[in-house]
């Protein structure tokens, strides 16, 4: 065992695979539980999109979180993992009829609605079943988050949500409908947010809107502020559990929640990011013209974040203690963007060494693809490998 990895248990496994350290996951969930308990009216939903591995979902469900789903497939996964339907919220800019029907059949807690045409279809489908659907409107608060452009969602130019100006009209439309019940407002400004000022800006927008709607005597029972809390990719061991204390405290300090309201969160990355690593073996060490390559059996099909977002994942040689050398760490896929890191310092690499790509629990396994007819990576928990 080097560091936190049970390498002896890895030897019999086919690489690449995801390894989930359940202690880190459970510590993270315990911290969320403890912090949320300080406020009587906070509810946390796990954003299933970050990782839907059944073993990971089961642990999250055991710890009492609800589920934030963005597709019928995610609703199936959440139900299968035992999440109670009345703790499931369903978001997404393009919900298909069968997905809406699935939500209605399970009597999920709420649909986060992103447009009037969608609202009309939910009303119609709920009517056909003789049901009432709870709806919250996703508002585009036009707040820019200081994160990668591909994962900013709260700007006017993004496809998400309803603009602040249109919301009065949309609420009026909903209130005139027979089979939807307007219960709340939903926001989400982006992901991997480390500048807490972005969340303060969101709180200010929510406060503005609440005051405006209150003046019209519109009652709102639920405010959902989405997710977005970032993790420390540079130092996965330094603070594996994100600073939930400051995060929830920020909302307590800045969001003017009314006594009858519940504040909902949809956290993904901050729940599962640090518990997962992608484990691969070195296939070859290749001498290039003026650099050397460590060629792994894992590629962008297993972890696409570096190729797609130029994301940084800490890379470690967990087999060797040899002197540090510098490598470009690459995968086997036929794409030049199949690079995990350039000029990475690693303990001297040999064929067969295990390489860990850290902080890969969120948007790792779930975003894997079968490009090049590759098999999808499996996921193992530390509980299974004792
Ligand atoms: N709620 C909504 C409406 C969302 O769109 C998202 C993420 C979340 C909650 C959860 O956000 P989190 O707490 O995980 O930041 N694949 C990208 C991230 C995409 C995030 C999409 N939405 C990545 O690998 O960085």
Number of strands: 17
CATH first level of the largest domain: which class?
Alpha Beta
| CATH topology label of the largest domain | TIM Barrel
Order of helices and strands: HEHEHEHEHEHEEHEHEHEHEEHEEEEE
Approximately how much beta-strand content do the residues carry? Answer: 15-25%
Shape: elongated
| Span of the ends, CA to CA | 12 Å
Class from helix and strand fractions: alpha/beta
Annotated CATH architecture of the largest domain = Alpha-Beta Barrel
Number of helices: 11
CATH superfamily of the largest domain: Alanine racemase
Largest sheet, in brief, is: 8 strands, mixed
| Ligand species | ligand LLP
> How much helix, percentage-wise, in residues?
25-40%
Q: What count of domains describes the coordinates?
A: 2
List low-pLDDT spans: none
Return the average pLDDT rounded to an integer: 95
Question: If you compute it from the alpha carbons, what radius of gyration comes out, rounded to the nearest whole angstrom?
Answer: 22 Å
EC number: 4.1.1.20
Binding site for pyridoxal 5'-phosphate: 228, 266-269, 363
GO biological process, one term: lysine biosynthetic process via diaminopimelate
Binding site for substrate: 269, 305, 309, 335, 363
